[in-house]
Amino acid sequence: MTRMLFPIWSKRQRLANLLRCCSKKALPLQGVRVQARRLFNQIGEKNVIPWSALILRHAQEGNLAEAIELFRQLQNSSMQVDDFVLSSMIDVFADFALVEQGKQMHAYAVKVPSGLEASVFNSMVDMSLKCGMMDDAERL
Questions:
Q1: How many whole angstroms from its chain centre is CA 17?
Q2: Among 55, 36, 56, 114, which Cα is nearest to 81's?
Q3: Secondary structure in 3-state letters for 60-105
Q4: Distances in whole angstroms, Cα of residue 117 to Cα of each of 27, 102, 104
Q5: Please, what is the average pLDDT of the chain?
């Protein structure tokens, strides 16, 4: 029985280590990003949780190019992008006043089922307001 549990525990442990490494409490050092990426690569079958953790860790640190690239990889995978990732990415674009990227994310969001969730809608309104686009916020 121990042999069967070890691979499951090992996979869960790798995911837990990745989430811990990607948490806001982890220091924003280059070594942490490298370690997070290494842990991410060690996870065999990834679901949206490790993708989200790694994407948002990069975005929170201001490494938007890497966050966007990881998001594109997620889109190209067989994984369905969920409302958490969409709303979080839109929130990041709002925080950095990246209106065009936010609009592109909104255009993508309306094409996928999870893009119709309230959290995505709220993030779009928030981005519009933060970026001074009152007319867009009213239309939403």
A1: 17
A2: 114
A3: HCCCHHHHHHHHHHHHHCCCCCCHHHHHHHHHHHHHCCCHHHHHHH
A4: 32, 16, 17
A5: 78
> What single DSSP character describes residue 133?
-
Q: What radius of gyration, in Å, describes the C-alpha atoms of the chain? A: 17
pTM for the model: 0.73
Are 101 and 135 spatial neighbours (Cβ–Cβ below 8 Å)? no
Length of the chain: 140
Cβ distance 46 to 82 under 8 Å?
Answer: no
The rounded distance, in Å, linking the Cα atoms of 40 and 35 is 8
For 47-95, what is each residue's pLDDT tens digit?
888 888 888 888 877 888 988 999 999 989 888 888 888 998 898 888 8
Contact (CB, 8 A) for 10 and 39? no
What is the dihedral angle through the alpha carbons of 103, 105, 107, 109, rounded to the nearest 10 degrees? Answer: -140
Contact criterion met (CB below 8 Å) for 53 and 35: no
Separation in Å, CA 38 to CA 16, 46, 50, 107: 13, 13, 12, 32
